[in-house]
Amino acid sequence: MDKNIYFKEWIHNWNWGMRTALFLILLFSIVQFSLFSLTQNYVISYFGAQPEDITFSIQVTYISLLFSLPLQVRFLNYFNTQKYLITVLLVGIFLNLLLMKTNDIQMFILLRFFQGIIISLIAGGMLTLIFSRLHNEKKQAVGYSVFYGTLLGSSVAAGAPTAWIIDNMDWRMIYYIVILFQILSIIIVLLIFRPERTHKKYPLYQIDWKAYIIMGAGMLAVAYCMVYGPKHYWFEDPTIVYTSFAAIFLIALFVLRQLKSKRPIIHFSIFRSGNFIIGLILLALFYGLKDTINLVYNYVSVMAQWSNYQYIQLAFFNILGMAITMYIASQLVMKKRFPLHFFLVTGFALMLGFNYWMYCIMSSDLAFTDLIIPIFLQGAASGMLFVPIATFILASVPVTTGISGSLVAGNVRFFTTLNSFAGYYTLQLFYNQHYKEQFLAYLTPYDTVYNERNAALVQSYIGKGFNLTEATALARASIMQSVKTQSQLLTNQSIFLLVSVLLLGIILITLIAFLFKKRMPKSKNKAVLATETHTITTYKTTL
């Protein structure tokens, strides 16, 4: 891509100025995606909704973002760049004004779907343009580091001012901040982009709109099943049954349509690559196992009831760890000094350290300082794993498949995140019930410890002015709350230990695979190396 065809003369040779401008537009756009991830309790209370509704709204936004990514490339090459970006940003401002006025959760979810499309068109366009400002050998590592880092870091960047706004004024003032960001983006667009078109116009009539609609509908059906399924006991609810059948039908229809299409959105030939399949498995393991951090965030917000500022400060240390190791990993990937096994063992070992650390320290009175190091380790693990795995996946797909590799990787992230949400939710239900039954077995009139504790609580409440009946009821409620708390703590410990064992197994398998590869006959090793080198070289030429 010619880097001079989009930008004004005064800035197109100023690389750092251009990169900064594009990154600011990217950040201002992605902030909207994770706007409520750290403050969703206030959104839940405002709409009178369930936590699952907000989780579903976040997934809906990601779905629309994901399936719009291939379209943004076509739009960027069809329309006048400056007018196109300004129009999209103005539509984004209009959507934020509507979100500010709505008080219905279903309308909120619908508007978030359209907001995801806007985020995709702007963020995807900025990524494409950032790639055009990088040397070929840097595009993979740096490009995806910027996107993933911005996606995760935006939650903290948005969380700090959001927490202050929520504590001092109406939370809907957040939308005014987002609109201000979008106005700043419009100003930047006017300053750096050419007002006239200087690039070839690619037609839009070859876009398979029906395939996009089918793919989006199928992903929405899957998200609904995975988010609401655990709470409704899966197939005991007719709505989940019907939605599951719809999801299977739509996904199957999409696959069949792609196999017969002359210009498919996803080229399924990429699945012939063994390295591509291995990369997807590694990506799924990464996204699935890293989500145990949500147990910590749930602990600090629900059980410990920390303030928003403490919550965001804790998330900051996670992002800090991710940023440091992501930078290190991207530099090492570009210099090609270490094999993939090195990053896998290091990253999963850091994640193992986080999970086992949390298993050891999990209690009802954790302080902020107790969580800084393990939370930092989890972020460091994410940064160390993502860039090498993403680079490995994209280097394993043929040139002719376009962005199929990125789109499939995004779908793996989507399905894995949903599976981990449903899986951890189901595990918590199972372990909670298990431990509650164990505790309740001791809450009998024949248990000395229970009787002593109950009597002490009754006397304590009587001393506070309650009569005997009220004091007895309050004592029993207090004991049941303690049972609930201890059951959740033991549940968290069990999940952290289970994931630690899985991570240890992954590390051992990776080491065995590495040793096996080193002992391969030299002729086979050279053939494999030649194939991998050819694939990577071919991929780079496309960028």
Automatic annotation (TrEMBL):
Q: Name one GO molecular function term.
A: transmembrane transporter activity
Q: Which GO terms describe its cellular component?
A: plasma membrane
Give the record's membrane topology: Multi-pass membrane protein
Main location, first listed in the record: membrane
Q: Identify the InterPro entries for this entry.
A: MFS, MFS_trans_sf
Presence of keyword Hydrolase = no
Q: Which UniProt keywords apply?
A: Membrane, Transmembrane, Transmembrane helix
Location comes to: Membrane
Q: Does the keyword Repressor apply?
A: no
Q: Which Pfam families match?
A: MFS_1
Q: Which Gene3D superfamilies match?
A: MFS general substrate transporter like domains
Q: Give me the segments passing through the membrane.
A: 21-44, 56-77, 84-101, 113-134, 146-167, 173-193, 213-233, 239-256, 268-289, 309-328, 340-359, 371-395, 407-427, 495-516
Name of the protein in its database record? MFS transporter
Provenance organism: Flavobacterium kingsejongi
